[in-house]
Amino acid sequence: MVARLIRQERLQPIHSDLFYCFAPLKHMRLDYVIQKAVEMGVSVLYPVITHHTQVTRINMARIEANIIEASEQCGILSLPKCAPAVSLETFLENWDKAHALFFCDELNESYNPIPLLRKHGTKPLGVLIGPEGGFSEEERVFLKKYPFVFSVSLGPRILRADTAAVAALTLVNATMGDWSIGQETCNIIQNNSLK
């Protein structure tokens, strides 16, 4: 049996190099942030256990179901992956050092993260959102020791973890993400892949 592509109904968006790293939240809030992260083009989700994390056991089947549901809703053909939950220390030890990691820090008083995001161009990056209660002072010091980790502020207000996730992912996409890829670029990429 031989199949021939006659027509493509729509273009598959380019797979992003945006990683969402998060301290697990309670069920309803976790469902929400997983769905929003998928909708916003995250390719990998990393649950990270911190000092203030209230939920240390996560239901991977539930996360996978949320990934599938959000992908179907948004027409995403390439499902994001979800890594197993690990401690912050283990997470940082295993993080690809070529990828910038922006951790959202409510104590950072520099309220404009855009210059820092732009400085890193379009290289792969991760966004790390802390738990309810934020990162401990010890964790802040630990995070800042790594040359690939950058502390960013989401403004003068303290946001809930689920709100911070949406705000941070929106900021990254608007500043340096795939929102800047136009239809013409998608057509060129798609035409080259069909040859």
TrEMBL record:
NCBIfam families: PRK11713.3-5 (NF008696), RsmE family RNA methyltransferase (TIGR00046). Residues 17-172 form the Ribosomal RNA small subunit methyltransferase E methyltransferase domain. It comes from Bartonella rochalimae ATCC BAA-1498. Transmembrane segments: none annotated. Its EC number is 2.1.1.193. It catalyses: uridine(1498) in 16S rRNA + S-adenosyl-L-methionine = N(3)-methyluridine(1498) in 16S rRNA + S-adenosyl-L-homocysteine + H(+). Keywords: Cytoplasm, Methyltransferase, rRNA processing, S-adenosyl-L-methionine, Transferase. Specifically methylates the N3 position of the uracil ring of uridine 1498 (m3U1498) in 16S rRNA. Acts on the fully assembled 30S ribosomal subunit. Belongs to the RNA methyltransferase RsmE family. GO terms for cellular component: cytoplasm. GO terms for biological process: rRNA base methylation. It is an enzyme of class 2 (transferase). It comes from the Bacteria. GO terms for molecular function: rRNA (uridine-N3-)-methyltransferase activity. It holds the Pfam family Methyltrans_RNA. This is 16S rRNA (uracil(1498)-N(3))-methyltransferase. PANTHER family: 16S RRNA (URACIL(1498)-N(3))-METHYLTRANSFERASE (PTHR30027:SF3), RIBOSOMAL RNA SMALL SUBUNIT METHYLTRANSFERASE E (PTHR30027). InterPro entries: Alpha/beta_knot_MTases, RsmE, RsmE_MTase_dom, tRNA_m1G_MTases_N.
